[in-house]
Each structure stands twice: as C-alpha cells, then as structure tokens.
Amino acid sequence: MIARCGQLDATHNHGAIAMSPLIAGAEPAQAAALLDVQAVAAMLDCSTRHAYRLADAGRMPRPIKLGALVRWRRTEIEEWIAGGCKSIRTPGAKGGAT
Question: Of the ranges 10-14, 17-21, 89-93, which is most confident?
Fold first, then answer.
C-alpha cells in the first residue's frame, strides 16, 4: 500500500539501497538506507518530476548527490512525512537550509 504524506508503509522497499557498512561506518543492521527518486515519489504518491521540484524548491529534505546519482536518506524522508511535510527552507532564504 502506498501512503500519502503522513503515513508510511513499513514494508515499502522500492528503490532503496542499503549503504555498505564500510561506507557508512556502521553495523549492517544499523546501516542507513538511501532512496532513489522513484522510491521517494512512490512514498509521496507523486511523479518523479514533482519530487525533484519539491527538493529544488526546498520543500523537502535535500538529497545527497553521489556523482551523477541523487539519493535521499530514508530516515529524513520518513521523519519529514511524519512531521506533516513542512517546508525545509524558510521563505526568502538564499542557498537553502543546511
């Protein structure tokens, strides 16, 4: 089941990649998951283009860029959704939030 902003399906793993423990510096069970744009869009029930627009506008957590790859931390997206999908950057702020 795909949930709209505010609810998550805990079994949803589409597009997720687990970071290597060597890269993340953590045990495999504690390794952070990264989501591609298709997985984020599925969680938000929107198009991939809209997910990019939200990120570009600062209305969702900033992605991580790994070369040509763009990924989001699963925990950041889940917390953002649980918090009501509030804008991340403040209006009028240049360069976005850190």
Answer: 89-93
How many CA atoms does the CB half-sphere of 70 hold within 13 Å? 13
Mean pLDDT, residues 72-79 taken together? 95
What are the residue ranges spanned by the domains of the chain? 16-82
pLDDT exceeds 50 at position 57: yes
DSSP string, the chain: ----TT---TT--TTEEEPPHHHHTS-GGGPPEEE-HHHHHHHHTS-HHHHHHHHHTTSSPPPEEETTEEEEEHHHHHHHHHTT---SSPTT-SS---
